[in-house]
Amino acid sequence: MTASDWNKILKQLKEKPEKMQKFLRHNKPKERTTGLARKKCERCGRFGAHLSQYNLNLCRQCFREIAEEIGFKKYD
Hints:
Helices cover 42% and strands 5% of the residues. The chain has helices spanning 3-12, 17-27, 60-70, and strands at 50-51, 58-59. The chain has a two-stranded antiparallel sheet.
């Protein structure tokens, strides 16, 4: 079950609190403590090539797009 499927089902169960509690108890995605899925880009959600330096939490593609807006300069 993907995260988007989980959110869709959760929206449908808002009006049924008993079924929602049971669904949450058995199907809630667990928090990741290790592995590739722990770090993902805050902007686009990619897992690979993650820059966590300076608490950026961006993938390299997103960093290249917004680097100058954040204040980084490109050296030639």
